[in-house]
Amino acid sequence: MSSTDATPETASREDVLIVHGGTPLEGDVTVRGAKNLVSKAMVAALLGTSPSVLRSVPAIRDVEVVTGLLRVHGVDVELDGDTLYMDPTSVESAGVEEINVHAGTSRIPILLCGPLLHRLGRAFIPDLGGCNIGGRPIDFHLDALREFGAVVEKDASGTHLSAPNGLHGIRYELEFPSVGATEQVLLTAVMAKGTTELRNAAIEPEIIDLICILQKMGAIIKVHTNRVIEIVGVDELKGYRHRALPDRIEAASWASAALATEGSVFVRGAQQADMMTFLNVFRSIGGAYEVDDDPVEGGIRFWHPGTALKPVALETDVHPGLMTDWQQPIVVALTQADGLSIMHETVYENRFGYTSELRRMGANIELYSDCLGGTPCRWGRRNFLHSAVIAGPSKLHAADLQIPDLRAGFSHLIAAMAAEGTSRVYGVDRYITRGYENFEEKLLGLGAKIERPVTK
Ligand code: UD1
Questions:
Q1: How far is the C-alpha of 42 from the C-alpha of 102, rounded, in Å?
Q2: Residue 407: its pLDDT value, please?
Q3: Is the shortest distance between the CB of 301 and ligand 1 below 6 Å?
Q4: pLDDT of residue 11
Q5: Given this model, what pLDDT does residue 103 score?
């Protein structure tokens, strides 16, 4: 996905949101299952010999994409409210063209490899999409799959994989604790012959929830200390019933929106345990929150206490560090802090593209290739602009904004809501609907003054 393929001039009229800024967001929103778990849980259903049921599924485009991918592989998928039924009993191979319909829209196809190799002996991956926030290679995935015994062949249409001798357990160490590559190893190892030991694994809450799902299906997975995961392969897995853990990225987005617009938002479903690092940052900036841990109606209220926000030095990291997807909404809030803040992005090399639009709105943000304010990371040695210095507070003014990717897109919306005047935000349907369910209804419910342009 390119950040320039839908400019303000070429985007359809419908793909624009008009935002009249300057109104504090006030009220309640509900977050449902995490985008970063739900799509993987759907892939896991492929491994079962019986149907699976996933609850708290958000109405987002990534779910539609994976639904399409499962259906072309013979899985019967039905959505009833927010409950997804997936019957994989008739899994079959799909043609390159059928799969390619879903190419370029998501990075999930790569995760179908292990399950399809187990079920069918072969798999095909089209060109991958996802947000344009760095090179986003799949070398760890393919390398691990080769170790498991897969044969990987690339041609102009994509990547073809086969497992002529089946798949066997491996001892593998990831160069970096990649979320996707950890999931790849889990989804492949659970039915590989023998035991797999994965070192330097990612341990994000969404991964632990995926492990819970696989365990319900019959897998044997041990999470040891020091990022070591051990998986004992089994011959058969059955379907699962599971409620997806809530989306901590969406929850943090609403929290940051409350802070940046000087409002107060109760995020129903937000869970303290998964958001501890974010909550610490929110409090150090000067934001206020209160946790209500009622199992059904609970959540976290986030608000601006009315006093000046404080500058902070932060760096993103793998869990339990500050999540890279929290970085953009926090940076918008930091434009309102009183002094110099630093954000060092250590997970992706190119995740500050969105700040040029914030600068056009009056934010004072400079990018550096040095590893500022924290530990040296792998991007500093390679000259990527991956540290930001934010000087606040800046009075933000309205602008026409082009969304470059999903998380940055929501941050543009937050900035437009915090700014004075009327902004036009382009690319909302293309990007924000990938990960934020009913975001317009939610914004309207919080009192945001937004509208679609009138079409003739
Ligand atoms: C997932 C999340 C995304 C989040 C990211 C990091 C989903 C759908 N997306 O993305 O929201 O920002 O985790 O928390 O769950 N890398 C390689 N080679 C590989 C794989 C990854 O070099 O084969 C690098 C990436 O370029 C990146 C880093 O590892 O620099 C982390 O990527 P990874 O954790 O794999 O992200 P995703 O799983 O794609």
A1: 15
A2: 80
A3: no
A4: 47
A5: 65
Pocket test for ligand 1, best of 39, 176, 346, 377 (most atoms within 8 A of CB): 176
With bands split at pLDDT 50, 70 and 90, how would you rate the model's confidence at 5? very low
User: For ligand 1, what atom is nearest to the CA of residue 176?
Assistant: 29
Tell me how far apart the alpha carbons of residues 373 and 109 are, in angstroms, rounded to a whole number: 37
Per-residue confidence at 133, pLDDT binned at 50, 70, 90?
Answer: low
Q: Whose CA is nearest to atom 5 of ligand 1?
A: 179
Question: Measured in angstroms, how far is the CA atom of residue 318 from the centroid of ligand 1?
Answer: 10
Residue 333 φ/ψ region, left for φ over 0, alpha for ψ in the -120 to 50 degree band, beta for the rest:
alpha
Q: What band does 456 get if pLDDT is binned at 50, 70 and 90?
A: low
Is the CB of 141 inside a 6 Å radius of any atom of ligand 1?
A: yes
Helix (H, G, I), strand (E, B) or coil at 196: strand
Can you list the pairs that 213-222 forms with residues at least 24 positions away whose Cβ atoms lie under 8 Å?
213/41, 213/44, 213/240, 213/242, 214/44, 214/47, 214/186, 214/187, 214/190, 216/240, 216/241, 216/242, 217/44, 217/47, 217/48, 217/52, 217/190, 219/190, 221/186, 221/190
Residue nearest ligand 1's atom 35 by CA? 178
Characterize 445-454 residue by residue with b for buried, 16 or more Cβ atoms within 10 angstroms of its Cβ, and e for exposed: ebebebeeee
Closest ligand 1 atom number to CA of residue 108? 8
User: What would the pLDDT profile of 173-230 be if each residue is shown by its tens digit?
Assistant: 999 999 999 999 999 999 999 999 999 999 999 999 999 999 999 999 999 999 999 9
The residue from 131, 212, 371, 377 that is catalytic is: 131
Lowest mean pLDDT among 164-178, 221-235, 371-385: 371-385
Secondary structure string (H, E, C) spanning 323-390: CHHHHHHHHHHHCCECEEEEEECCCCCCCCCCHHHHHHCCCEEEEECCCCCCCCCCCHHHCCCCEEEE
CA of 50 to the centre of ligand 1 (A): 30
Encoded tokens for 423: 């902004």
0.90 cut: is pTM over it? yes
| 131 in catalytic set | yes
Peptide bond into 246 cis (omega under 30): no
Cα separation, 286 vs 310, whole angstroms? 6
Which residue's CA is the nearest one to ligand 1's atom 22? 137
Six-digit token pair at 269?
Answer: 């479903």
Nearest atom within ligand 1 for CA of residue 135? 26
pLDDT tens by residue, 119-132: 999 999 877 655 55
> Minimal CA–CA distance to 300: which of 9, 31, 12?
31
140 lines ligand 1 (CB under 6 A): yes
